[in-house]
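Q: Two folds, back to back.
A: First:
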Amino acid sequence: MSTINKSFSNGEIIIKEGDSGNTFFKLLAGKAEVYQNYGKADEVKIADLEEGQYFGEMAVIENYPRSGTVIAAGDVQVDEIAAEELNEYITENPNNILEIMKLLGSRIKTMTENYNEAKKVLDDVRKVNSSSHYDSFFAKMAQQSIYLTAKNFRLERPSAESLREAEKAVSGLKNDNNTTYPYGTIIYKQGEVGKCMYIVHAGTVNIFTNYGADNEIKLASIEPVGCFGELGMLTGEARNETAVVEANDTQVEIIHPEDLEGIFKSSPAKIDMILKNLSYRLRNTTYEYYKACKEIYESSRDND
């Protein structure tokens, strides 16, 4: 396989928002900046990229339009990898499986923290109905260069079609790491450090926060062949939810980071499905975050 090495000068566009994405990139040298609405009156800088980081991968994983414009900040060198060569790229560089997963996991973690903060603010807004109670939240958003105008809240839900197709490809695959659990089994608890992830092959697993407490919240039901526990495995941090078996004879596959290379060699569709799950989760969490921000913003305007 041949990756394409490209050079860009300061201010040059590497990828453009809205374009269809059939390649992704690894930043080899220099720095880059990510914008939404680049070149327009409501331009927003949303991220900085450093050497060694990947970008543009979500468009490849999900076959989704580019969500931002990436601009060279000084002289930049990148490797460009075509979507159809992703499997070969990982075959030649197996450590990149975990790198790409960790990148998505880190983005999900950050966006989840933002969303949780927005939910708390929104709850206060609904109860108190006073803009003075969320001025500090607005200040943080301004610092993050998020403009609070209605047209910047992108409320298009991500499609799950590509995720379903990847799951179909995995559903018939055999593996040697399956474990069967009875109803009510707690697979892991909130607060425990996660060292593995799971794929459901039969039955159902429910995901909760504050499981067993008065403020228990059911976050999701994971059915065949969905994934859960990826973030704990990728970040090495404490789990922020509890996974509980909902049906007797629920069968799950246990995956550790060191298993990923072997899984890719035997079942590349399984790695593709995991990546799609991560990408979909990031898009969906981003959607929910901006949805909450939109309601907070509109409430503030109503109260002005």
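A: Second:
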Amino acid sequence: MKKISILGLCLVAGLTMSAQKDLLKEVENTVKSGNFDYTAVKAKIAEVTTNPETKDDAKTWMIAGNAAYSHYDALFLKVQMGQDVDKKEIGSAMIDGYNYMIAALPLDTIVDEKGKVKAKESKKILKSIAENYSHYNNAGIFLWEAQDYAGAYKAWDIYVNLPEDPRMKTVGLKADADTLVAQIVFNQALAAWQMNEFDKALVAFDKAYNKGYQKKNLFDYAIAVATQAKKNDVACKYAKLAYPIYGKEDPVYLQVIVNDYLEKKDFANAKEFLNGLLASDGNNAQYTDLMGVLLENEGDQEGALAQYRKAVELDAKLAIARFHLGNLLYNKAYAIDNEASSKSQSEYDKIRKEQTEPLLKEAASQLEEAFKLDEQNMGDALKHLKNIYYILGDEENLNRVNLM
């Protein structure tokens, strides 16, 4: 009985091994037919790529790769014909094909007893990967549109790095022009940002910039990501790169640079930087306003007020200068009122009438103008106005600003 049992076990094992090879052959024939259900085929691929009998054979993974690439081709043809396809499905199929083919490569490399390396199918595998070079970019676009940002990042990562793989040079793969690759790396950075992978995004922004992508949106997004990642030095780096190109049309870069100095309390270098700008353009309201910000941070309130007033004179429509002026006047009035609170009632009333109220009214005038010029970014101006009109007992204006 024991011999029969052992023989039975051997027969079962043999049948299982044969069944796996038969399944692999079935998958191969199905793929060659060009008309197949990829979901069903992929389930069979999962079986043959995990079974000990077939998982270590390069051919297994090549067949899987061909299935994925064929499925992509079928869906891409539909796209070209104007038909709708599942964008996540088509993009993922291209990534599947790459992953399967890459898995096949080390299995195809065999070292014989004499130490000689043999690679029967490697060139064919590499050609299959290389022939789909541009489609990895397409896959990234499909996956981005499907909001599968991790998939988009992966597809673009393949596209960007594939030409740098020495193995690809053996089959003649050449990278697209840097201008196109740089755009794709930028897209990859955005995909990483969508995943909150800030470090990956910043690496990609760097790579895109180094490849020549220097459009304004790169600097803007890189600064935003670096700020979210709390990497102020990186934000400042991009602001300094952007400022010579786009500084005249967008004051944000200059503000980022100056704010970096101020956060570090590096007043000496901040002043040197601003003085250099003012030396080249002494009537620039933005530079003048930022000098006021610097002086205020140094504690020179009167110097700051003078700069803010000058900035408003130079450019009456510079909302941020009006806000800075109104804010400092408001703070000055508050400080005077607070100090006067310890005095007698008659002294307090005199100071309030002669000093505090005039300052508050002037502050209100500047803050009102600041809010009119830039309602979207002047929420703090509105808050100050509510406090000022409350302190002044100006019920009409208080009710008005409460409705804004």
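Q: And?
A: DSSP finds 20 helices and two strands in the chain.
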